[in-house]
Automatic annotation (TrEMBL):
Residues 15-55 form the RING-type domain. Gene3D superfamilies: 2.60.120.920, Zinc/RING finger domain, C3HC4 (zinc finger). Residues 216-413 form the B30.2/SPRY domain. One of its GO terms (molecular function) is zinc ion binding. The keyword Metal-binding applies. It comes from Sinocyclocheilus rhinocerous. PANTHER family: B-BOX DOMAIN CONTAINING, BLOODTHIRSTY-RELATED GENE FAMILY, MEMBER 1-RELATED. One of its GO terms (cellular component) is cytoplasm. The gene is si:dkey-46i9.6. It comes from the Eukaryota. One of its GO terms (biological process) is innate immune response. PROSITE patterns: B302_SPRY, ZF_RING_1, ZF_RING_2. It holds the Pfam family TRIM_CC. Keywords: Immunity, Innate immunity, Metal-binding, Zinc, Zinc-finger. This is E3 ubiquitin-protein ligase TRIM58-like.
Length: 418
């Protein structure tokens, strides 16, 4: 019967994968030993480089080293197990032809062979790692090139759409200009025709004839007004008190707003902006073309434009297109900018007093105009997928500000300001 010591010794020379005596035993970094072929096959069949004994996982295939001592023990164990009598005689009767020096030389030669073999394994492992890294970088370069090509195509497509939209707008405006010129020519012809003048001079009922002419002109003006209104809906908007920041004070009619310079005790509802001095309008836009005007006067820190219905209303807010705001701004009395990402600075002279805002929902257009000078300031081109609300930002450092006002558009033809 085998003693516990001999059973323990036998267990120590067995591979835990193949359960047989070690063949070419190797050690891995965690300290456990396996047959070289066994651990290699195990890692090939597994998704991870993991020790079968302690389950330690390695980031890459670890280096392995030949365990020469364990190999000699395993080979000796195999010899004893195969022919115990002969090996017993061999151990009791040493070979007289081999001196102790020769045995030492042989041992050194064996170690040299082991080192060479380990070096070859390391070299093979390093080469594989180089090939893997080259593959990773090649894949990364291809991905970057693909992304660059897609970005170029996207920019070119947006440019084509912008050019198409601009050409369409130009064509429509040119047609409208031609129509207005034709009607103006007809009016001039009517007012300068000699027969018409003679008729007015000789007509017994001259007053009635003049009245008829005036009615004709008024009818023509009404027709032109109706045609313009078909193109753009003049929006009657008002400030929404349920969204206004507590620093902002609104008039009862909802058309005037100022920074109060003091905090008001208002209910903190989900709709209200609690940190940034913003309010929305009551009226939302989900289709069509719309236009309104805002009196900004001498104020030196404001934003006006449109915002998505889903914009964040709590805490600090970044007013930018990336966050759902399309806006024109005056910042600290020093510069005009638009809320692109990053912001784009504008050179505007003279200082804006009254700003017109135009939205074409289907075309994804938000435009700003200097009403006083009748000039275009800036246009955003985007796409809208949810309701938009006109929004207004008014800041004042430590005192009440003058008033920001929503103006009736009907007064734009007059010289006075609202």
């Amino acid at each position: 019967m085998a003693s516990p010591t001999s059973m323990l010794a036998e267990e120590q020379v067995h591979c835990s994968i193949c359960l047989d005596v070690f063949t070419n035993p190797v050690s891995i970094p965690c300290g456990h030993n396996f047959c070289m072929a066994c651990i290699g096959s195990y890692w090939k069949s597994s998704a991870l480089f993991m020790c079968p004994m302690c389950k330690k996982t390695f980031f890459k295939q670890p280096d392995i080293s030949i365990n020469t001592v364990l190999r000699e023990i395993a080979e000796k164990f195999k010899e004893i197990k195969t022919n115990p009598v002969a090996n017993l005689q061999k151990t009791t009767q040493p070979d007289p032809g081999q001196t102790e020096v020769q045995q030492m030389i042989q041992e050194r030669l064996n170690k040299v062979d082991d080192i060479k073999h380990s070096l070859e394994l390391n070299k093979s492992s390093a080469q594989k790692e180089i090939e893997d890294s080259m593959q990773v970088f090649s894949d990364l370069i291809r991905a970057v090139q693909k992304a660059q090509a897609e970005l170029v195509l996207d920019i070119e497509e947006k440019q084509r759409k912008t050019e198409s939209w601009a050409n369409g707008q130009i064509q429509e405006l040119e047609q409208e200009i031609d129509l207005l010129k034709l009607r103006n020519t007809e009016l001039e012809y009517l007012s300068h025709t000699e027969d018409h003048i003679h008729f007015l001079q000789t007509c017994v009922y001259a007053d009635a004839c003049v009245g008829t002419t005036r009615r004709t002109v008024l009818k023509l003006e009404e027709t032109l007004t109706e045609e313009v209104e078909k193109l753009v809906e003049i929006v009657d908007i008002t400030f929404d008190p349920d969204t206004a920041n507590p620093w902002l004070q609104l008039s009862e009619d909802g058309r005037q707003m100022r920074h109060l310079g003091a905090w008001q005790d208002l209910a903190d509802t989900p709709e209200r902006f609690d940190t940034v001095v913003i309010t929305l309008s009551r009226e939302g836009l989900s289709s069509g073309r719309h236009y309104w005007e805002v009196q900004v006067g001498e104020k030196d820190d404001w934003y006006i434009g449109v915002a998505r219905a889903s914009v964040n209303r709590k805490g600090r807010i970044s007013v930018s297109t990336a966050q759902g705001y399309w806006a024109l701004a005056m910042k600290k009395g020093q510069e005009y900018r638009v809320s692109s990402s990053p912001p784009l600075l504008l050179s505007i002279e003279p200082k804006l007093k009254r700003v017109g805002v135009y939205v074409d929902y289907e075309e994804g257009q938000v435009s700003f105009y200097d009403v006083q000078n009748k000039s275009h300031i800036y246009t955003f081109m985007d796409s809208f997928k949810e309701k938009l609300f006109p929004f207004f930002y008014l800041y004042c450092c430590d005192k009440a500000s003058d008033t920001m006002m929503i103006c009736p558009v009907q007064e734009t033809s007059h010289t006075k300001q609202c």
